[in-house]
Design a protein that fits this description.
58% of the residues lie in helices and 6% in strands. It is mainly alpha-helical and 286 residues long. It has a domain at 38-149 and 216-285: Four Helix Bundle (Hemerythrin (Met), subunit A), CATH 1.20.120.80. It has a 3-stranded antiparallel beta sheet with strand order 3-4-5, with no helix packed on it. Strands 1-2 form a two-stranded antiparallel ribbon. The model is unreliable at 155-159, 179-191 and 193-211 (pLDDT under 50).
Amino acid sequence: MATNTVTHEEAHETEQDLWSGGKRPFKVSYGKLMMWYFLLSDAFTFAGFLIAYGALRFSSPTWPVPDFVFSTAPFGVHHAPLIFVTFMSFLLIVSSVTMVRAVQEGHRENQRGVVFWMFLTILGGAGFLGCQAWEWNNLIGTECMTVTTNPFGTHVADGVYLDDVHGHAYTADAERETFKAGEGYLIHQDHDSGEWLQRRMQLETGELVQQEFGPKAFGALFFFITGFHGFHVFSGVVFLLIIMINAASGLYVARKNGYEMVEKIGLYWHFVDLVWVFVFLVFYLL
């Protein structure tokens, strides 16, 4: 009888332990689980933006050619398609590698290693933001592209117009007019109104005629989506800097949890890098 009583009491205690709330779901901490939930919701947000871009892209009769739009680089480099954005992507990918090393050093409880590799990650993120700032400045200041104005998209290949000087579509056997890309090309400022107009020279008479801009949606989508991603990178750099300072101060040493905070910000940083792969694909390659 006594044996049965003990067995019943042990079973009751075991049942209480199961419902005590001490078991970690999926064998991960609460903080990492919440980070995964946040990243999942953020992935849906980016997916919605990119799907909207695709819908507008394939419903438009003309669309800018990436090799033509993104063909310039700093120091006066022209006609070098995607060279600069490739360098930007390289910086972000390398920063993801250094973030992996920071997490590894955290698992080893190596404080100096965590701080060193996080510092390199911050440099990579800051370099990417600097490159994006130059690209935006070039597109807005030199190429005259804004959220409401898009000088690109009136051609199907580099320097070939879809429409003639009168705004009519070329016939299949007609010789298409071409132009040379350069600073301020296709753009003319009306000094009376102060507005930017897109004009080109009519070959027969030498007079300037107005040429339609490309689809407005391109400029708006480009600045919004790349800006939204850039905001994520900027936020990540700020959080990385705060966590690096905390790690350097020894805040995480006493916790003895493998620098879990570094691992959580690492998940976020890898997500930002992964999203850039899709942004790079839809804007710069397709």
